[in-house]
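Two proteins follow. First one:
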Amino acid sequence: MEISNFLNTKPLDENKSKMIVNYVYTSVKTQKGIRVEDAICLISTIVAERCIEAANEYSINDHNFEPGSALFSDKINELLVGPINVNNWNQLPKECVFGQIKSKIDWQFESDFFPSLTEIFENYAKNVGEKEWGNLNLRVPDNNKPFLLPLQAGYESRKFINKNFHTESTKELLEITLNAMAMILIETKMALYPAITLTMVFEIINGMSKTATMTDKRMEGLKR
């Protein structure tokens, strides 16, 4: 199936997206409240895992790759930004993942706050292996970096996703998750400088969709 056809979906029940929003907030809430950076990290990682499922190159639950290792993929790139590399956000196909997110939040975020598309991809490629295992080298201030480990956050979110969305198709679940992403970005807009927020979002989605996921088998091995 063509990526463009895959992502050309009809509107879905917003209540399903709100379920994911509530899960994200509940998961990162502490006695001090909700740290927005961690909420953004979690929803971005959930989106990234849905992108891996949509690309259908391997199972996020059962594979032989080393979790946390880089897996560069032309199919993921096409899913995220379309078949042709561009650096102008307005030239992105509306059906690609980055294009969909932008269209959902455009009315709240000025274009100047969106990071360079080229730099998103270059930053991930040049920093592979330079960060602690399971994490990403994000171009945001140190005090805005998530406390969550994305690799672990993605793995732990699957129990909720599998329990509550087992009847949805991969296409539907990706759309539901993108809607949840937009809700969180709009609701938390005033908590962070928008350029920091959007850099974090797109770098995590890109990076974690190209990172081998944690599996039950590997997790059991770590516990021994």
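Second one, unrelated to the first:
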Amino acid sequence: MNVPLWAWLAVLGFIVLMLAVDLFAHRKAHVIGVREAALWSAVWVAFGVGFGALVWRIYGAEFGQQYFAGYLIEKSLAVDNVFIWAIIFTYFAVPREYQHRVLFFGVLGALVFRGIFIAAGSAIIASAGWVLYLFAAFLLYTGYQMIRHRNEHLDPEKSKALALFRRRVPMTEDFHGQRFLIRKRGALLATPLLAVLVLVEVTDIIFAVDSIPAIFAVTDEVFLVFTANAFAILGLRAMYFLLADLIHRFIYLKIGLALVLIWVGIKMLLKIDIYYIPTPVSLAVIATILGVSIAASLWVTRGQARHALPAPQNPPFGTASAEEIEALEPLWRRPGKKSVRT
């Protein structure tokens, strides 16, 4: 697959443009409702599917199918991210109107880290093909562990990353609007919102360790690996606001995701020396596993209404009043001037 430099630049430019549009559209903090989330989800899915159709038309059915297989894997594994975010936001009692800002920068960081992981993974595979055995074994083990611990959930209080952040970074006890940093009595302090962002980034890095090897099982093309990841990740924010109040209904999804990882692990093992499973077959198997797990979940939990996770009785952080926020010192200071208000 020969992808010219201008195609890479065009994709990166489009991603930057859409991130800018998204940031502008949500420049004012507000609670994102189901209708708005559904609209943005439809937009992001349309872009992802449209790009796949473009790949199919220009490079042929095989590469088009590889893109869609990778996109489906990344999109499905991303749902687990959504559930973790809901747990994090609930634990920190993050006001819903501030959650989009965290996720915007979280997704931006995810794109950067995924790009680094993809480049590193591609280089490693090119120089040491035997590493595919390790990737396959890791996927099989991860799938098994996911089934074994399917009823266990992240406990933010036990997060080593959060504990390290609290020890090393001076932090306020209250949210101050959408601010990640404030200045108080001359000292620069992090707000709990920055701690939330750090935890979101750490969890995404952990998930990337699973998802990147998984997509290399269905395509070796770096361009397809990156674009499938990018278009799947770009829609994560909207997906979160659409599904966050429904996570209690997807009771079999984790099993479905585990089976997908096991399947792609088997596919990778067979592809190395034994047999290359055609991409349409892989795509059909992945779609069937996910479709059955989602349909079974929704059927068993039919009649259950949307509801958020129960809020903690004693939230770890408070929320600063409008007067306290207004009285904050300017964040940055310029040489020769007393201060600059931001």
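SUMMARY FIELD: The first helix runs from residue 5 to 25. The CA atoms of residues 172 and 191 lie 5 Å apart.
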